[in-house]
Amino acid sequence: MKPRRYYFMLLLILLANTCLAQRQRLGHDVHLFDGPALRLAQAVQQESREAIQKLVKARPGLLNYQEPTYGMTLLYCAVRNSKGGSVEELLELGANPNILETYSGESALIRAATNFETSAYVHLLLAHGANPNLTAKDTPGKTQYHSPLMAAAASRLESVQLLLAAGADLNYTSPGGDTAVMLALMSQRVDIAGFLILEKHADISKPLMRTFKGRNLMAVDFLRDWTFDLDSENYRKKMLLAAYLKAQGQDYWQAPIPKHLQKLYPKGYLEKY
């Protein structure tokens, strides 16, 4: 398991690199399909369902074509660019939702699960055979999330619920030691962490991370990083989690207060938060 500070630094770097890559690629996805799939890519971009139907009927092999630069399929591209009509049409025509992009190594479902605004693409992909337990491959781009549930755990509760209902492995651990519950806790997603722990009983019995000094971090240590207003709903939910964790042998009030918070908040707050 990665040290805590190193992990946060790595996460920030990954986010920055991902944003840069997305900016570089935004608006140029169609041109990545220069060649046999260009017309179909243009129809996907324009969400012209009739044109998509005609072009796929004429050349069925283009339905799962992967452009050579990043290995994107048109389905993955449509999900990434929020082209809902095209996503639906491609799936209805039989597009394979389980093809992994060759640069990031992720599936269309992992990409869909990162969406903060909607779970519609997760729902569509699952309804058309997307595998909720298909994990990303180790590739040069290295996706930020190794499984669809991990991506959803840092993004959107509804997507988490859809994936679990479809059979996603609640306690899957990535080769790097990440789990969905760890990502929800680290992202301070109170609603998602509460759902995974209190309702689905995700495994929190083992250390989730290790510090530079070798101290194992449990779920309560992540809660110690949550600095909500004491009269807020998030604080109330945090304390519900703390009570549950105490019943599991993890005493929130015995967990050390992070040193960086001691410099930022008054003693009175830290005694209660």
TrEMBL record:
Keywords: ANK repeat, Repeat, Signal. It comes from Hymenobacter saemangeumensis. Residues 1-21 form the signal peptide. The keyword Isomerase does not apply. Pfam families: Ank, Ank_2. Gene3D superfamilies: Ankyrin repeat-containing domain. ANK repeats lie at residues 70-102, 104-137. This is Ankyrin repeat domain-containing protein.
